[in-house]
Q: What sequence folds into this?
């Protein structure tokens, strides 16, 4: 059975490697992904800051299309997309009036049949950690990978959370450990990276992301594992700015969870797109004997 | 407690539980399970040899699990009676089937592993409920570590650390490494006034106990800096406000108005992030220890107790009084009175006042042979009653009873009767009775019809 896949806009731009590596990893796991045809932007943060209807209509159109395509579930890798799709799904599930209103706007009826998942809970629930362990060919021995969840994967907890404990989630840690790496318990798992203030208030992003890097370094991490294109962009791309502003050059590789998986599952380094990162992970991987 | 234990008119049944309550005011029939403490109350001299020599150590409940107790133990030093109890779950005689060190060493021959629970059934005239409260479990606050950080403790834990008979002998040290804290953060309203956590009410005591803790900390450790995050300070009791002011002015407590959003560990420090809403800025405190002013919550089994006693409780499990202003000690069940924090969060003066109130109510009740009651009660016309007993089922107070009478010709007959001292005149039986044989005095069918006719005219 094919799983519905919603790549989201970032997968075509700043987080292309997240998309590439996710597809590679799914091939290794024997999971067939089927893209939602003619998908549109989920609205992310600008839509719900503009209009409630727009913030529901954009994701709901994607859900309606997926349903029409005969899919039972929709999985996305981006935290913001997941958050919007899930919030839209839960909102119309609770309120038939809202569903009618939005169905009218979208012009495609949504019947609330889809299971909306993020790549992370898709892995631990649909694939399962046992199966993941079996597929590992290159265990990530001696790699200390700090899992960073950011805001949107666990908040608001009553609607979207992928983990039973939204304040101290461990679902990614479980996946990382299944790959043979060590996931340290650290302080900034769910702190905000500054997110969409990247352009309007870069100073805030530099401060907040700097604190996350500092905490990861304090936890003695070799790299930070992310599951969100925006977290990745802030943490990876801002490191030189953080270095000049804070006087500390962390040079901490930021890896998508799919990239780390790709390495453990035996996908070639060159095929994962890791070389697109600003902070190179090559040295760290070489040191650990993983390339 | 010792004084009451020596009073001839007071019998204290410790380690006992009420199993069933029947009867009514003046005639409560209560079944009490006196649990087997496996130590003979009469023989034990309280010498303490047994718990000194017991080889099993268990985290002490009284010390908030910061110290250890033995498997045979006296729950706390001032316990009445000063007779130990054996904890079957941990005692080696029960877990492994051998040990009996305490039995061999007991000179009074008081240890009895075979002792069984005893059931006491007796009649009582009135019941005062004083079952107290539970401490709110702060582990639902994931943002404060959810119980993961050793040096984030509750106010009651700090209380034990300060106590000379506590686990550290009164030395205030961090549970993690035994070092003296230099910078301590207090967080108010943890499990109080927090709708998100299902506790919208104020716990009443935390503002004052936190101020007291700040004073005691400073007295024990003059170098310490205390920082208190608060929502607003509630100090309406007599002299309370002056005490809080003294805490700030003489004891240097730094009061910060705002909530804490997160605590995390950095090395051996706890980083406390919060807001100062008066200065309109974010604050970050590097603390050695954090004390949560955990609120008061109803006892975990309060609903079962309420069901046994036939008294109502609110959505949080606190027992409900008959009237919030005019009858704050009585309950809807005549003869059952409330005192202390089982009714609502109360501090010591309020508890003592309500306890005195309950005692006076009981004394007044017992001082006379007759009871005055409101006259608006039900009566049953037994000549019409078909004994279907539907009224007995609907009566919330158990006021309708079956009695046996002897007729003039000597034959015996069963009939229903209303216990006037128990009936509250709610009228449930009146509307349930199919043969219309129950009437509420002062509210008879004729009276209602007359009222309707007057309205209709």
A:
């Amino acid at each position: 059975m094919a799983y519905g896949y919603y790549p989201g806009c970032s997968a075509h731009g700043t987080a292309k490697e997240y998309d590439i590596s996710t597809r590679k990893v799914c091939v290794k796991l024997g999971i067939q992904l089927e893209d939602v045809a003619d998908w549109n932007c989920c609205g992310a943060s600008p839509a719900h800051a503009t209009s409630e209807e727009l913030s529901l209509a954009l994701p709901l159109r994607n859900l309606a299309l997926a349903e029409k395509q005969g899919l039972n579930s929709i999985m996305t890798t981006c935290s913001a997309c997941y958050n919007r799709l899930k919030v839209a799904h839960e909102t119309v599930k609770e309120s038939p009036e809202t569903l009618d209103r939005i169905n009218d706007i979208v012009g495609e009826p949504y019947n609330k049949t889809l299971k909306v998942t993020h790549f992370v809970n898709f892995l631990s629930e649909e694939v399962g950690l046992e199966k993941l362990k079996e597929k590992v060919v290159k265990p990530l021995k001696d790699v200390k990978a700090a899992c960073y969840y950011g805001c949107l994967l666990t908040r608001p907890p009553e609607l979207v959370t992928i983990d039973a404990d939204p304040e101290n989630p461990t679902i990614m840690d479980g996946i990382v450990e299944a790959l043979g790496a060590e996931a340290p318990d650290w302080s900034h798992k769910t702190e905000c990276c500054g997110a969409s203030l990247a352009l309007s208030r870069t100073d805030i992003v530099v401060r907040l992301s700097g604190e996350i890097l500092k905490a990861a370094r304090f936890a003695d991490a070799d790299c930070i594992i992310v599951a969100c294109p925006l977290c990745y962009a802030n943490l990876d791309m801002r490191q030189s700015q953080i270095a000049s502003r804070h006087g500390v050059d962390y040079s901490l590789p930021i890896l998508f969870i799919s990239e780390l998986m790709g390495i453990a599952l035996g996908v070639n380094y060159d095929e994962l797109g890791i070389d697109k990162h600003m902070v190179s992970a090559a040295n760290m991987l070489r040191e650990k004997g993983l390339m | 407690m010792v004084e009451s234990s020596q009073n001839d008119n007071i019998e204290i049944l410790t380690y006992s539980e009420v199993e069933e309550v029947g009867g009514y005011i003046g005639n409560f029939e209560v079944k009490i399970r006196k649990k087997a403490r496996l130590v003979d109350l009469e023989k034990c001299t309280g010498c303490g040899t047994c718990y000194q020599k017991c080889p099993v150590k268990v985290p002490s409940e009284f010390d908030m699990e910061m110290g250890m107790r033995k498997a045979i133990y006296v729950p706390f030093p001032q316990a009445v009676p000063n007779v130990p109890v054996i904890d079957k779950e941990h005692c080696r005689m029960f877990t492994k089937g051998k040990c009996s060190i305490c039995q061999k060493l007991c000179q009074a021959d008081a240890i009895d592993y075979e002792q069984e629970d005893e059931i006491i059934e007796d009649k009582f005239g009135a019941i005062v409920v004083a079952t107290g409260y539970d401490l709110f479990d702060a582990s639902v606050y994931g943002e404060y570590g959810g119980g993961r950080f050793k040096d984030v403790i509750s106010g009651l834990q700090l209380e034990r650390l300060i106590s000379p008979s506590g686990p550290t002998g009164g030395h205030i040290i961090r549970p993690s490494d035994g070092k003296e804290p230099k910078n301590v953060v207090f967080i108010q309203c943890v499990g109080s006034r927090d709708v998100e956590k299902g506790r919208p009410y104020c716990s009443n005591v935390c503002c004052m106990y936190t101020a007291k803790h700040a004073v005691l900390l400073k007295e024990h450790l003059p170098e310490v800096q205390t920082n208190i995050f608060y929502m607003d300070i509630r100090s309406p009791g007599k002299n309370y406000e002056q005490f809080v002011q003294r805490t700030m002015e003489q004891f240097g407590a730094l009061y910060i108005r705002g909530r804490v959003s997160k605590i995390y560990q950095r090395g051996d420090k706890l980083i406390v992030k919060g807001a100062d809403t008066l200065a309109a800025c974010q604050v970050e405190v590097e603390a050695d220890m954090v004390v949560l002013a955990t609120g008061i919550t109803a006892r975990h089994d309060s609903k079962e107790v309420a069901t046994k006693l036939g008294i109502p409780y609110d959505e949080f499990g606190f027992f409900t009084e008959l009237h919030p202003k005019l009858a704050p000690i009585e309950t809807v069940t005549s003869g059952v009175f409330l005192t202390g924090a089982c009714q609502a969060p109360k501090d010591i003066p309020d508890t003592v006042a309500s306890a005195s109130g309950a005692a006076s109510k009981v004394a007044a009740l017992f001082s006379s042979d007759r009871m005055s009651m409101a006259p608006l009660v039900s009566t049953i016309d037994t000549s019409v009653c078909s004994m279907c007993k539907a009224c007995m089922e609907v009566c919330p107070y158990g006021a309708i009873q079956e009695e046996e009478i002897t007729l003039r010709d000597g034959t015996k007959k069963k009939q229903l009767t209303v216990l006037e001292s128990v009936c509250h005149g709610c009228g449930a039986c009146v509307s349930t009775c199919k043969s219309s044989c129950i009437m509420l005095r002062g509210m008879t069918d004729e009276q209602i019809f007359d009222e309707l006719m007057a309205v209709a005219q």
Summary: Residues 136-287 of chain A form a domain with the Rossmann fold fold (CATH 3.40.50.11810).
